[in-house]
Amino acid sequence: MVLTVDGLRMRYGDTEVLHDVSFDAGPGEVVALLGPNGAGKSTTIEILEGFRLRSAGRVEVLGVDPAAGDERWRSRLGIVLQSWRDHGNWRVRELLHHLGSYYAPYATSAEPRPWPTDELLDAVGLTAHAGQKIRTLSGGQRRRLDVAIGIVGRPNVLFLDEPTAGFDPEARSEFHDLVRRLAAEQDTTILLTTHDLDEASKLAHRILVLTAGRIIAAGTTAQLTKLIAGEDEVRWTIDGRPFRKSTEDSTAFVRGLFATYGEAVAELEVRRASLEDTYLALVREQS
Ligand SMILES: Nc1ncnc2c1ncn2[C@@H]1O[C@H](COP(=O)(O)OP(=O)(O)OP(=O)(O)O)[C@@H](O)[C@H]1O
Fold first, then answer.
1. Whose CA is nearest to atom 26 of ligand 1?
2. Could you identify the atom of ligand 1 that is nearest to the CA of residue 12?
3. Which CATH superfamily groups domain 3-226?
4. Which of 182, 191, 248, 272 has the highest Cβ tally under 10 A?
């Protein structure tokens, strides 16, 4: 396993913000930590990055406890934080070239490092802005640069904390392609956090739903849909009077409705439970 988290707990003072979090991830796997504000997503990712010391539990990243990771171990991680580190006066190409040079000592023949600057600029869609000063980039362009900084060392593991915040739909879709390519072609294991269920479903092989410091559901989008599938809603009127019923099997219910009321049933509507609805219901229930 590339990532192993077993019984992870974290406490800030008297407050426990992670309770017994466990999951793992293999090479080339994309895992999304999905949850509302304050669920503990950043805390989890920061512990795996070695930025925070956990209170309890076993954590291994590339076979190493992050609390004891050395420079060589660190060189195999890519990190994209939520907050922007300001390098305003640098130009995009210069900065990537400069940061990339730190990784050169850790190159192997199987894993050349760093990622050549021009190829990288192309991969993140910043070629046209390569000569621009960083403070003149738009929010979405800066975020692309954040991602480029995260992957310049061709990491084996990439941590992305809310990577697409501030992206327009096109940038988001290009970013999704990039993440898929990194996982499929470079076997990069990717752990990302997001509030966005749609993004998690599109990107991740596995989604972990975290609320209030606990993983309350985990699986592929299809498995989650099955696991937390809610009830459909059926609405209809009889003689102008509105009715509404929540049911797990709307087809059987509608069949029964027609058997009983026949042609008196009008304005029939069936709304299937979406994963989004059930995810929101779950989160509300837990928080
Ligand atoms: N340094 C800290 N000291 C005390 N409490 C903290 C600290 N950092 C985070 N917390 C608390 O821990 C909990 C989890 O925070 P965390 O940032 O991990 O959540 P998150 O899921 O990443 O949220 P968001 O989506 O808002 O980024 C929150 O209740 C937060 O207030």
1. 37
2. 4
3. P-loop containing nucleotide triphosphate hydrolases (3.40.50.300)
4. 191
